[in-house]
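#struct-queue
[09:14] JT: dropping the first one here, sequence first, then the structure tokens:
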Amino acid sequence: AKHIFNVPKVLCRIYDPLRRELYETLGLEAISPTTIFAQILKDELYK
């Protein structure tokens, strides 16, 4: 959508955090629920 339809901001939900770099090299912002949850859990454990 970003390149074909010139959408200025595209957000991709990814399930495999290892693929984040691939999406970012394509100019897409990628979020991973797995990574977000892991960070929240880590923050809660080390409060």
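[09:21] JT: and here's the second one, same format:
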Amino acid sequence: MANRYLRRTNFWACRIDNNFSVTFKAILRCRPVLQTAIRRHMKDGTTTDLWLDPWLGSGSLLDILGGQLDREAGRGLTCSRIIRDGVWRPEGYPHTAQLVEEIRLVTIDASQHEDSWSWAEPGTGGGSGLFCFRSCYDLVRTHHDQAEEVDFI
């Protein structure tokens, strides 16, 4: 899938193209709902896109800061840019006091080297961390008002 649809972009920032399969378009339309059930585990920040990945509980920095950002200026920056010695250091980037507090609530586990995603059971905030189709189906089905198209399920 990544080789076919995501060669030059990030899953979270990918724009829907008419050449995409019906199924992949439907998955992309469900991104806002899927974001509610995934968690980013920060290690060194080198594999997490600072602006595009939804590594904060409230979404991506691009979604949160919106018009305050020049989309091209931050292209390719990772969270490692605002981590120093295992501590968040967002100074020098657009932010508010509330955003800095939310960033500092994200735990950095310096014992590992690569960031990872996990799946949280809908409504629990926890779960096993392992993705299962039933859980995903239930999530999308119960949030169909937020997902534009779920006919592929």
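[09:30] RK: nice, looked through the second one.
[09:31] RK: The chain has a mean pLDDT of 81.
[09:31] JT: good to know. The two ends are 18 Å apart (CA to CA).
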